[in-house]
Design goal:
By secondary structure, the chain is α/β, with parallel strands linked by helices. The protein is built from eight helices and seven strands; from the N terminus they run ααααβαβαββαβαββ. Strands 3-2-1-4-5-7-6 form a seven-stranded mixed sheet, with helices on both faces. α5 links the parallel β1 and β2. α1 runs parallel beside α3. The termini are far apart.
């Protein structure tokens, strides 16, 4: 019985967070996010996908944290569509347990999301999630990002590496000339921005507010010069 109550309260928290972010998610999408959380908990026991074990903490630090980046992502996808780029492809680098990649795939069904990880069991988890959640726009890729040359319109990461490493390693996979990097960070990473290669420019630093989490978050948007 306790489990059901916990799940109900978690669902309410998720719904409230989605509403606070004005995401307009359907009941089906909320259910998918809850099902993903359950999958993450189940697989985490065996595969150690994330150091966060507590379902409540998973909700705030993983799901809601990833959801906060969905409105900016949707806005950019709309810009790309306006420029004639309709079949938008996103690569999520080092996404581990699928954060934010799986969340992006659920909330942006028109975006084709590939999650790349060097750890085979993490890529396998993404594939499993794609099957279990029936997400045709989600793919798990077991590879080093440096080896990928398939073009992507957006390359994202969340707490993956320093900005210079992130753009250097993933550069070959970024489609020119309209491709962008979306890096989710905590505090404004002034030193990392300063250390970026000269042929990469930061065109926007976007502050994020994560519902239920009192912590600094931002997106560093970058593009090749």
């Amino acid at each position: 019985m306790t489990m059901a109550v916990t799940n109900d309260s978690l669902r309410q928290q998720l719904q409230a967070g989605a509403d606070a972010l004005a995401l307009g998610l359907t009941d089906a999408q909320i259910t998918l996010l809850m099902d993903f959380l359950a999958l993450l908990q189940k697989w985490n026991k065996v595969y150690n996908l994330t150091s966060v074990r507590d379902p409540q903490e998973m909700m705030t630090h993983h799901l809601l944290d990833s959801l906060a980046a969905v409105p900016p992502l949707r806005r950019h996808v709309a810009v790309l569509a306006g420029e004639g780029h309709h079949a938008v492809r996103l690569l999520d680098v080092g996404s581990g347990g699928g954060l934010p990649g799986v969340v992006f795939a659920i909330c942006c069904p028109d975006v084709d999301v590939s999650c790349v990880d060097t750890v085979g069991k993490k890529a396998a988890f993404i594939q499993q999630a794609a099957v279990a959640l029936k997400l045709r726009n989600l793919h798990g890729v077991h590879a080093r990002v440096e080896t990928l040359t398939t073009p992507f319109d957006i390359i994202s990461c969340r707490a993956f590496a320093s900005l210079p490493d992130f753009v250097t390693w993933s550069r070959a996979a970024l489609v020119a000339p309209h491709g962008v990097w979306l890096a989710m960070k905590g505090k404004h990473p002034e030193d990392e921005i300063t250390a970026l290669p000269t042929d990469v420019s930061v065109f926007h630093v976007e502050q994020l507010t994560v519902p239920g989490l009192d912590a600094e978050r931002c997106i560093i948007w970058m593009k090749p010069v």
